[in-house]
Each structure stands twice: as structure tokens, then as C-alpha cells.
Amino acid sequence: MNDFSNTKRPNYTVPLITITLLFFMWGFITCMNDILIPYLKKLFELTFFESMLVQFCFFGAYFLGSLAYFAVSYYKGDPVNKVGYKNGIIAGIIVSALGCVLFYPAATFGAYGLFLGALFVLGLGFTILQITANAYVSLLGTEDSASSRLNMTQAFNAFGTTIAPILGGFLIFGSSANHEITAEATRIPYLVFAGILLLVAVLIYNVKLPSFQAEEEVESRGLGALQFPQLRLGVLGLFCYVGGEVAVGSFIISFLEKDYIMGLSEAVSKNYLALYWGGAMIGRFLGAISLNHSIGTAKKAAYMAVTAALVFLLIYSIVDLTFAQVSFFIVFIAINFVAFFIGKSAPARTLSVFASINVLLLLSAIFNQGELAMYSILGIGIFNSIMFSNIYTLGISGLGKYTSQGSSLLVMAILGGAIVPIIQGAIADTDPVYGVQHSFIVPVFCYLYILFFGIYCSRKLKNVEHPVGGVSGH
Asked: Where do transmembrane segments lie in this chain (predicted)?
């Protein structure tokens, strides 16, 4: 890594703002999948299993892309270290934009297979961004503040996932309640997304970004990063987390449509879906404050309370719901607030607490009906908030020169977003034997494993001092 010890510490504000804008668009477009699933399901008269091929193709691309990256880095050396983070990020954006453009021919020909192909290309682009952008943010400043920066950029990523159901739902569904749903509705929105991504690429190209280089070469022999048990368990942990989060988000609209739950239309359900993803944004902003060890406990609590209130009001201003309809979320914010202090900014402990809460919420959603079931499923988002960062941190802790290689393996585990929704979709298709509501037993097992991983790390990695939500520097 570049040595700045004898020079004035560089100002990374502009590069960080630029990358944060990318995280926002990245989150927005990813969450559009939750809008596409019920839309394409009705358009092509698909089963739940078939509609979940949306997530299978999108997140399956993460697995194949990361597998290719790992193979190249293992035998030929780290590609990002050769081309640079800036070029890697731009390449990821261009591939993502291409995926968006491919929605135009898919919609024109009205072929479900072409939609899936476009999603696969889009997923490949986001795979490159996962490998490059997350690690790059950790390098834009001091190592002890890396986790705070990553949580902050991921909070804006969550902001994108929060407004996507509202704005994206309007762009796709529009007034579909009064008009026939057609494939052409996706053409213009995704062309706009492609244009915005390319503008971000141009902006990043013209902004002076610092370059970083790894200090050590990884030996291409033995198990490499896989020799570390925390990484092996962490890969499965990230598989379960992404799978659980994506599966829940993918089924929320269908879940709320059920008469025994709420009997809501897509136009209304998308606002509640925004609350699910908005919860992740609240949790990540709170996490960024929680791990700032320069602030006293009393001030930290005050800052977190004010931040939670402001972000909640922001979400309330976005969704087309009354205050009475969203007021239940205040209870989850309070529980989340307490859970952070129980976790004491320790990644493994906090992970265990949050996973336990999500298991209870899912069981409540499975065995209850009406508003209680709805509130339970929507509350899961806020407790998902720090899971990706915590599992990532614990997985690569102590890897040293194998950190980059381990990171690519963790990104590969995003395959969970492809596999878990497919399994849940197959169970949902068994209605009335099990159906949508009882299919949520699948993410229950995901969060139970995350609970196990948190307990394991709290016992085996007691000497790891990484704060919640961060990644190690390269």
C-alpha cells in the first residue's frame, strides 16, 4: 500500500462521494428485481419457482464471476492489483450498463429467456463492483475508520433499495391497475438506468482516484485462503445471509397480496417493500455511529437516536403510506437500538443478536396472520442491516496476504441469492399444502446458521479487534 507517513494525509472526500453515488445506483437497480418478479410472473404466467429464476440468474452471475476471479487470482495473480481499482470499477459499471441495455430487446421480443440473460449480464457487472468497490472504500482513509466508511456507503446503497420499490414500481407498474401489463414497460426505465450508470462511469473516470497496490503476492499453492476456518464458515454464512435477505424481499409483495395476510395490491405492497429495505438503511447509519469509538456512550446514544428519527422521517416522506400505517416501525427501531448496545460493537456478538431476532420474526410471520404477520416480515430488514459487513469482516479477519483472495470467495457466496429464493419458490408452489407463508421456513434455517457462525466467531476469534461492519485493509 502506498506510504503516506511522510506526507500530508490526502483528502479522499471527493473520491468517497463519487463512489457513494455508485453504491446508491447499485442498490437501486438490485432492488428492482423485487419489482420485476411479480411483474414478470403475471406477464408470462409463471409459477413461483419460474419467477425466482430472476434472482437465480442475477445472483448466479455473482457466483460464476467470482469463481472466475478466484481462479485467475490464484494462478495468475490478483487482476485488480494489475489493472487498478479505478479501472476495475469502471469495467464493472460498463458491464452493468450493458445488462440494462439488454432489457430493451428482451422487452421488444417479449421473451422471458432474454430478460433472464439481461439479468445475468447485469449481475456480472455488479460482481466486479462487489470485488472492487467494497475493498476500495476500505482503502480511502485510515484502517481504523474503514468500517465506518463502508457502513456509510452501504447505507446509501440501502437508500437506493428503499426508493427503488416506489420510483421503480411507478416506472414499471405505472397505472397497471387500469391498463394491461406489457413487456414494453421495462424498456425505457432500464435504458435510463444504463444512461445514469454510464454518466457515473464518466464521472469516476474524470475524478482523480488514488491508486493502491497489495504489499505481498499470494502463493498459488496449497489451500490458499481456504486454510482459514473462519473464512470457510464465513462463505456459507454470507451464502445464507444473502439468500435469506433476497428470498424475504422477493416474496414480500406476493405475501402481502394474500387475503389472510393483508390482501394488498402491488401498488400498495411496493410501499411496504420500501420499509423492508429502508430498515437496512436505518441499521447501517446506526452502525456507522455505533462503531465510532471516539464518541462517549451517552453522546453515541443521542446521535443514534437523532439519526434514527431523521432517517425514519425520510422514509416516511418517500412511501405513500399514512403515519398510522408506518408507526409500527418505530418499535423495530427501538429494538434495533437496544440490540446494538447489547452487541457492544463486537461483530460476532451483534451478528448473533440480530440473527436471533430475525429467526423470531420469521416464525411470527409463519404462524400468525393479518397485521402481525405483515409487521413481522417487514421488521426483518432492519436486523439484516449489518449482517453482510459483519460476516465479511469476520470471514477475512487474520487472512493477511490472502485477504483479497478470501474477499473474492466471500463475494462468490452471494450465490445464496440465486439458490435460496428458488428453494422457497418451489415450496410456495405447493399451495395449499404449504404455500407462500410456510415457505418462509427456508430463510429461518439461513438465519439459524448465521446465529451459529456468530457464536463460533465470538469464541474462536476473541483476539480480533475489527469493529462492526468493516473490512480489513489490503
From this structure: 12-40, 52-75, 87-106, 112-137, 158-176, 188-207, 231-253, 273-289, 301-319, 325-343, 350-367, 373-396, 408-428, 440-457
**Single-letter amino acid, residue 5:** S
Check if the beta carbon of residue 347 is closer than 8 Å to that of residue 457: yes
In one-letter notation, the amino acid at residue 164 is: A
- DSSP per-residue codes, 4-38: -TTSPPP--HHHHHHHHHHHHHHHHHHHHHHHHHH
Q: Is residue 230 part of a domain?
A: yes
| 70: number of Cβ within 10 Å | 22
180 has a pLDDT exceeding 90 = no
Angle at 341 between CA 338 and CA 344, to 5 degrees: 155
Structural domains counted in the chain: 1
Distance CA 292, CA 453 (A): 24
Among candidate residues 218, 226, 277, the one with its CA nearest the CA of residue 252:
277
Q: Among residues 377, 280, 383, which one has the least CA distance to residue 340?
A: 383
Q: Which of 317, 21, 282, 279 is nearest to 166 (CA)?
A: 317
313 domain residue, yes or no:
yes
Q: Does the reported pTM lie above 0.90?
A: no
Lowest pLDDT segment from 148-157, 242-251, 448-457: 148-157
273, 318 contact by CB (below 8 A): no
Mean pLDDT of 256-260: 89
Here the CATH number for the domain that contains residue 264 is: 1.20.1250.20
Q: Name the average pLDDT for the chain.
A: 84
Alpha helices in 291-328 (DSSP H): 297-318, 323-326
What range defines the domain where residue 452 resides? Answer: 13-208+223-460
Q: Which of 55-64, 335-344, 450-459 has the lowest mean pLDDT?
A: 335-344
Amino acid present at 320: D
